[in-house]
Each structure stands twice: as C-alpha cells, then as structure tokens.
Specification:
Blueprint lengths: L6 E5 L5 E12 L2 E8 L11 E9 L4 E5 L4
Antiparallel strand pairs: 1-2, 2-3, 3-4, 4-5
C-alpha cells in the first residue's frame, strides 16, 4: 500500500482542500472513528496534530462520511 493511499482530503469551512494522513480506524461501543494527522498547517490545525472524526452513514447518499464529535 503506497503512502498516497493513506491520504484523506477534507474541505475546511472555506472550501479549501486539506490533506490528512489516515492513521487508524477504531471501534468503540459499536461506533467507528477515524484518527487523522494533519500533513500541513491550516488555520484550524497545525501539521502533525491529530483529529478524531466519527464515521456515520449519510442517509441521502447511503455512503460513509466523517462527522465532528460534539462532546
């Protein structure tokens, strides 16, 4: 598996593409979460910082999407 296969591109609140490295996917109490590491500095996140997002099913497209965790 090449390094490019580990890159996830998300859009920030301004519509800019931001690349993250996928570190792992974990299951906790029946829910799935993804751990991503920023590959570059942005307004919201510095390169090397990690974020955790919840994997949820989009009802309209029936695809998995990443959602921020509220608490």
């Amino acid at each position: 598996m090449s390094e490019q296969e580990h890159i996830v591109t998300l859009q920030d609140e301004n519509g800019n593409d931001v690349n993250f490295e996928h570190l792992m996917t974990v299951e906790h109490e029946g829910e799935y979460y993804v751990l991503l590491e920023a590959t570059e500095d942005t307004d919201d996140c510095k390169g090397g910082e990690a974020i955790i997002l919840k994997i949820v099913r989009d009802e309209e497209t029936d695809e998995d999407v990443y959602a921020t965790i509220e608490d």
